[in-house]
Each structure stands twice: as structure tokens, then as C-alpha cells.
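Table S2 (text version). Query chain:
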Amino acid sequence: MARYGREHKEATRQRIVKSAGRRLKKDGLDGSGVTTLMADAGLTNGAFYAHFASKDDLVAATIADQLQEQQVLLRRLADEPDGFTRFVQAYLSPGHRDDAESGCPSAALLDEVARSSPAIRRAYSAGILGVADDMAALIAPGAPATGRRQALGCIAILVGTLQLARAIDDPQESETVLAEGARAISALLATPEA
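Corresponding C-alpha cell output:
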């Protein structure tokens, strides 16, 4: 029986992580078992332990990957003069609100992450602070401390706004929440640092 090489194993692991990202954001951390997560990747759950020590290990890897994708996006936007504005508009859009499966892991999973294992919380903390640092480069280039504080405030507004907009069943009221979140970010960034 031929053994797969390291590249194949890493590609399979990435396929599991990517498909788990979609499923976890759709159904939550507790809403999907290993069997479902592996089936989404086109694998049997027997292959799971060749890639991950536990479900928490998979969740931590998935959250880290999802937040890394946000960092990549923010870095691409750093070269554009209106990059942060475009990021906020896309984040607080009806399309993002209505597509949790393809959207931000924070807005989809934050309440569950807060109640998760230390490994999952560590992965989330490292990832979201990386997102904050990349966002800070967009908000306040050359002023990392100021930018990071503002970025953390923006992240709190973005995530909370999107969660609230998703929870409200009236589409017009939900869109009002999205618009008010964008106004709150503008106000935050317009306020001089103390």
C-alpha cells in the first residue's frame, strides 16, 4: 500500500480546514461533528486523526486559517487609498449579513469561541490581534499604537453590528443596523485620540 507524501497530506489538511470553515460558520462549533466535517471534505472520519489530534485542534486550525484570510485581504487593501472604506462597506453589507457560511468567522462564531477550550481561544486571540494590526495599518499608517486601539474598536463595532443585523428579522431594520454600524466606525475614527 503506497503512503501519501507530505504535500498530499498538507493539501488534504487544507481541504479539511477550508470546508470546516464553511460548515462551522453555518452550523456553529457544536453544530457539526467530526463525521460531518470530514464528509464535507470528501473524507471518512477514519482519516481525521491523521490530520488533527482532536476536534478542538481542527477548530483552532480553522479559526486561525479564517482570520489569516482576513489579514491577507486587509494587506491587499493597504495599497488602495479607499481600502478601509471598501472593507467596511463590504463587511456591513446585506450580502455579507446573509451569507454567514462565506463570511467573517468572528461574526459567526464569537459567542461560541468565548466558551471554548483554551486552545481555540488562543488561536482566535492570536488571529484577531493579527487582523487588528493589519487593520491598524489601514487606519493609521505610521501610528501603530493609535491604529491598534482604533482597529480593536472598529472590529468590535463591525462584529457586533453584523451579529445584530443577522438576528433582526425585519430586513429594513436590519439594514438600518448595518448603516448605523458604518456611522459608528466613522465617528470612532473621527474622534481625536486622548
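Notes on Table S2: The chain has nine helices and no strands. Residues 54-190 form a domain with the Tetracycline Repressor; domain 2 fold (CATH 1.10.357.10).
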